[in-house]
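Lab notebook, bench 4. The sequencing result for the construct came back, and we need a structural model before the next group meeting so we can plan mutations. Quick request posted to the team channel:

Model the 3D structure of this chain.
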Amino acid sequence: MSTDPTLGGMSGNAVIEFLTTLQYAALYSMLSTLKKMGLLIGLSMLLMTIFLPAPTGMSIPAWHTTGAALLLAIWWATEVLPIPVTSLLPVLLFPALGVMTMEQSTLPYAEPTIFLLLG
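Done. Here's the predicted structure in C-alpha coordinate form:
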Protein backbone atom coordinates (compact mmCIF):
# COMPACT_ATOMS: atom_id res chain seq x y z
CA MET A 1 0.00 0.00 0.00
CA SER A 2 1.43 3.40 -0.91
CA THR A 3 1.75 6.27 1.48
CA ASP A 4 1.34 9.94 0.77
CA PRO A 5 4.22 12.12 1.96
CA THR A 6 1.78 15.00 2.64
CA LEU A 7 -0.07 12.80 5.19
CA GLY A 8 3.01 12.23 7.30
CA GLY A 9 3.71 8.87 5.68
CA MET A 10 0.25 7.49 6.57
CA SER A 11 -1.97 5.69 4.09
CA GLY A 12 -5.39 7.13 3.24
CA ASN A 13 -7.18 4.45 5.29
CA ALA A 14 -5.01 5.14 8.32
CA VAL A 15 -5.84 8.85 8.08
CA ILE A 16 -9.56 8.08 7.92
CA GLU A 17 -9.30 5.77 10.94
CA PHE A 18 -7.33 8.42 12.83
CA LEU A 19 -9.91 11.12 12.04
CA THR A 20 -12.75 8.81 13.04
CA THR A 21 -11.02 8.18 16.37
CA LEU A 22 -10.65 11.93 16.88
CA GLN A 23 -14.35 12.44 16.16
CA TYR A 24 -15.32 9.83 18.76
CA ALA A 25 -12.93 11.37 21.29
CA ALA A 26 -14.41 14.82 20.67
CA LEU A 27 -17.95 13.43 20.97
CA TYR A 28 -17.06 11.68 24.23
CA SER A 29 -15.50 14.86 25.56
CA MET A 30 -18.58 16.85 24.60
CA LEU A 31 -20.93 14.36 26.26
CA SER A 32 -18.80 14.37 29.35
CA THR A 33 -19.00 18.17 29.45
CA LEU A 34 -22.76 18.00 28.88
CA LYS A 35 -23.14 15.63 31.82
CA LYS A 36 -21.06 17.91 34.03
CA MET A 37 -23.22 20.88 33.03
CA GLY A 38 -26.38 18.86 33.68
CA LEU A 39 -25.10 17.88 37.10
CA LEU A 40 -24.36 21.47 38.08
CA ILE A 41 -27.49 23.01 36.56
CA GLY A 42 -29.77 20.34 38.03
CA LEU A 43 -28.31 20.66 41.50
CA SER A 44 -28.43 24.46 41.31
CA MET A 45 -32.14 24.34 40.41
CA LEU A 46 -32.85 22.12 43.41
CA LEU A 47 -30.73 24.24 45.75
CA MET A 48 -32.41 27.38 44.45
CA THR A 49 -35.80 26.07 45.53
CA ILE A 50 -34.42 25.04 48.91
CA PHE A 51 -32.74 28.34 49.81
CA LEU A 52 -34.98 30.89 48.07
CA PRO A 53 -38.47 31.62 49.38
CA ALA A 54 -41.43 30.11 47.57
CA PRO A 55 -43.38 32.39 45.21
CA THR A 56 -46.46 34.03 46.66
CA GLY A 57 -49.33 31.59 46.83
CA MET A 58 -47.15 28.48 46.49
CA SER A 59 -46.61 26.18 49.46
CA ILE A 60 -43.11 25.16 50.53
CA PRO A 61 -43.65 21.46 49.60
CA ALA A 62 -44.86 22.52 46.15
CA TRP A 63 -41.78 24.75 45.74
CA HIS A 64 -39.49 21.89 46.75
CA THR A 65 -41.34 19.56 44.35
CA THR A 66 -40.64 22.07 41.58
CA GLY A 67 -36.93 21.93 42.40
CA ALA A 68 -36.94 18.13 42.41
CA ALA A 69 -38.83 18.06 39.10
CA LEU A 70 -36.30 20.45 37.52
CA LEU A 71 -33.41 18.36 38.83
CA LEU A 72 -34.95 15.15 37.48
CA ALA A 73 -35.81 16.66 34.09
CA ILE A 74 -32.30 18.04 33.61
CA TRP A 75 -30.67 14.82 34.75
CA TRP A 76 -32.92 12.73 32.48
CA ALA A 77 -32.13 14.96 29.51
CA THR A 78 -28.37 14.96 30.10
CA GLU A 79 -28.18 11.43 31.57
CA VAL A 80 -25.95 12.49 34.45
CA LEU A 81 -26.92 9.19 36.04
CA PRO A 82 -28.47 6.26 34.20
CA ILE A 83 -32.18 6.95 33.64
CA PRO A 84 -33.35 4.05 35.88
CA VAL A 85 -31.26 5.44 38.75
CA THR A 86 -32.58 8.95 38.17
CA SER A 87 -36.14 7.64 38.17
CA LEU A 88 -35.65 6.35 41.72
CA LEU A 89 -34.42 9.67 43.12
CA PRO A 90 -37.92 10.86 44.16
CA VAL A 91 -37.96 8.01 46.68
CA LEU A 92 -35.08 9.75 48.45
CA LEU A 93 -35.71 13.39 47.57
CA PHE A 94 -39.36 13.76 48.55
CA PRO A 95 -38.98 12.52 52.15
CA ALA A 96 -35.72 14.47 52.55
CA LEU A 97 -37.40 17.67 51.34
CA GLY A 98 -40.49 17.12 53.50
CA VAL A 99 -42.78 16.79 50.48
CA MET A 100 -44.15 13.38 51.50
CA THR A 101 -43.32 10.36 53.60
CA MET A 102 -41.22 7.46 52.36
CA GLU A 103 -44.34 5.31 52.13
CA GLN A 104 -46.15 7.92 50.05
CA SER A 105 -43.19 8.40 47.73
CA THR A 106 -42.71 4.66 47.10
CA LEU A 107 -46.40 3.86 46.60
CA PRO A 108 -46.53 4.89 42.91
CA TYR A 109 -43.70 2.45 42.14
CA ALA A 110 -45.94 -0.44 43.26
CA GLU A 111 -48.62 0.18 40.63
CA PRO A 112 -49.43 -2.89 38.48
CA THR A 113 -48.63 -0.95 35.30
CA ILE A 114 -45.10 -0.30 36.53
CA PHE A 115 -44.56 -3.99 37.21
CA LEU A 116 -45.92 -4.74 33.73
CA LEU A 117 -43.35 -2.39 32.21
CA LEU A 118 -40.55 -3.96 34.25
CA GLY A 119 -41.34 -7.34 32.69
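Residues 52 and 63 are 9 Å apart (CA to CA).
Will bring this to the meeting.
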